[in-house]
Amino acid sequence: MRRMENEITIQRGSHQIGGCVTEVETQGHRIIIDFGGNLPGNREGGISDEELLRTVFDGRVCDGVLFTHYHGDHMGLYKKIPREIPLYIGPTAKKLLEILTQELDSYPKTAEKGLPRVRSMNCYVPGQGINSFGDILVTPFVVDHSALDAYMFLIEAGKKRILFTGDFRDHGVAGEYNTLEKMVRDYIGKIDILITEGTMLSRGDEKRHNPIRTEADLGKQARKLFEANKETVILVSSTNLDSIMEFYHGLPWGMDFVCDAYQAKLMLAAMEDKGKYYKAYRPEMIHGKPRRLYIVGDMKGLGVGQNCYPADFSILKRKGFTMLAREKTRFKKIMECFSDPLIIYSKWEGFLGGEHADPAILDFIGNHRMTKLHTSGHAYVETIEKLIRMTDPEVIIPMHTERADDFGSIPAFESCRDRVRVLQDGEEYCF
User: How far apart are CA 208 and CA 352, in angstroms?
Assistant: First the structure.
């Protein structure tokens, strides 16, 4: 039977961070935005992955699944999506995802290989509408986030203009020079419905107690730590390329940058694609030559042609270095030869304690000296307020937040509280 209304449904993610799945459906067409796995610690009693699959892919038409970015809480269930449904992602994000998936596929416990599906994904052209979804037109726009090459979507359907923010911010590399304001002013303008993330609404203390507000701040503080410590080890997500590039550029001349082949491949791919747009993604030049990357473990095909060399700590320890690490036995073993390394913790503080504590991270840090140096990958309250003010939506739908129910009572949003429409998981909003 033909549908009589157009609908937005947040199948999961209306009252939690991560695990996101959103539908936009018209009278004959339907798209899915993100298909993420649940983060550890997400509320019990919500829809399970199996129920989610049955609900979303229930025989109704599905013209495509669009991923805002490559984080697992937004696309972690991609292998479960029916093969006949086309998948979409950013071009640089796809390159990075291929490197990540090759790494994951190499693990013995990985039952289903993901690389063939990743390689079949379609890529966005920023600012160019996708006409493959019938009466739903989607225009992707690059946004700043801790995942490189992330997107928000302008969706035009049923005579309405819907802006789906995905995860975004304006204090990273892609957010410099008022990029968000310029993009909204020049290409988006007024909209009818805003679907916005609100991750930081429940993390006010994290922001208040953290002097590192921007990625640029992180780079400046990193340099001071490098200058004061001859041996540093950085715990950072290998796909948080903004922070990694700030560490890379913040390292003083005369000291060396160490990582493994997987991390080096991610850096090299990001530099190749984004160096033409952002200074932070260009090689650090030392005496006219790019800074070398020193590789621990298997070189995995890297060599002089990629400016990569095997790490020899008998030399590196004399010069001083920083090393990107992962919570792996290999890195713990390598650190046994270090004198008194400082661990720079550059991940979400929640992994260090409480319900989201990560035992692998805590074990890795052990009794080593540790300092925190991190900035959020998500929009601050004032950034969300600014977006609302610039787009002047008739309806505001919060998601990807633990504070959806009191979104309208937050002081920054007081002037628009009567426009806030809080949805429950699975609830349809007709437009």
Answer: 18
